[in-house]
Specification:
Elements (H helix, E strand, L loop, with lengths): L6 H14 L6 H4 L5 H17 L4 E7 L3 H7 L5 E6 L19 E10 L10 H6 L1 E11 L10 H6 L6 E4 L15 E6 L2 E7 L7 H14 L9 E3 L7 E2 L6 E5 L4 E4 L2
Parallel strand pairs: 1-8
Antiparallel strand pairs: 1-2, 3-4, 3-8, 3-9, 4-5, 6-7, 6-10, 10-11
Helix pairs in contact: 1-3
Bound molecules: hexanedioic acid (0L1) and magnesium ion (MG).
Magnesium ion binds next to β1, β3 and β4.
Length: 260
């Protein structure tokens, strides 16, 4: 059983689940030897197939950068994933529920890069110097695993549960904001269900940005100028349900509402 899995097969299985909107068991249950480094190779193989289908990389995302997310998923290591143009959802366009498996929404602080950022050795300060603007964001995650139940290599291979994202077009100069104190309220159908500040994200979202640059450097990649960086869910994620709008409202970055 353990010998029949390969990087290519894992990528194909995950893409097939995504295309057929079906979830399934953890790859690590059948391939216990799948380690994190190999899982990133699966993630890259999956991206290569998306690129062959015409998708273009527009940025990177971090996952599991906040305690709220780490506690919920039972994994304490942050991870990265790729963002493509096909995942971008314009503001005010409903979440395509029919095209996803079991989407959940989480608030994120998003950077748009003014300059290329390449590790190793990137610090929060050098990372911030490369940022052009900061935006309110919403990530719509969708795991290709049943009940979002995965181990770290599973979720790395699954491109960090990436599905869709919404970024507010209104950008702010990060130098004028204290992102540790930037607060966000998460509401479902008008009722506040969770809240956090930017400090929830690795102490400061710039720490998450530096972490991504340094992690990508180990894989021979960098964060390119013009790319988006989703710094990770600030709170636990909530399921998208028809007729129950979800709003994220930040102190200074603005507000985004998504509907199912
Ligand atoms: O499915 C997940 O929650 C893993 C991806 C993490 C997303 C995030 O923390 O932003
Ligand atoms: Mg996220």
């Amino acid at each position: 059983m353990t010998t029949s899995w390969t990087i290519d097969r894992a990528a194909r299985v995950l893409l097939d689940r995504e295309a057929r909107r079906t979830d399934g068991g953890r790859i690590t249950d059948e391939w216990p030897g799948l380690d994190v480094a190999t899982a990133y190779q699966v993630q890259d193989a999956l991206l290569a197939r998306k690129k062959a289908d015409g998708e273009a990389v527009v940025g990177v995302k971090l996952g599991l950068t906040s305690r709220a997310k780490q506690r919920r998923m039972g994994i304490s290591s942050p991870l990265t994933g790729w963002l493509t143009d096909a995942m971008a959802l314009p503001v005010d366009v409903p979440v395509p529920l029919g095209g996803l498996i079991h989407p959940r929404v989480e608030p994120e602080i998003v950077f748009v890069m003014a300059e290329r950022l390449a590790g190793p050795g990137v610090t929060a300060a050098t990372a911030m110097a490369a940022v052009g603007s900061v935006h309110a964001g919403v990530e719509i995650i969708d795991s290709r695993y049943t009940d979002f139940a995965f181990r770290l290599p599973d979720v790395v291979a699954d491109n960090a549960s990436s599905a869709r994202f919404v970024v507010s077009p209104e950008g702010h100069d990060p130098r004028g904001l204290d992102l540790t104190l930037e607060a966000c309220l998460l509401s479902v159908d008008g009722e506040v269900v969770d809240s956090a500040t930017g400090a929830a994200v690795q102490g400061h979202p710039a720490e998450a940005l530096a972490l991504a640059a340094n992690a990508l450097a180990e894989r021979g990649s960098a964060i390119e100028a013009g790319w988006l960086v989703l710094t990770g869910g600030m709170t636990d994620a909530v399921f998208v349900e028809p007729g129950r709008p979800i709003t994220v409202e930040f102190t200074h970055l603005g507000r985004i509402t998504v509907t199912g």
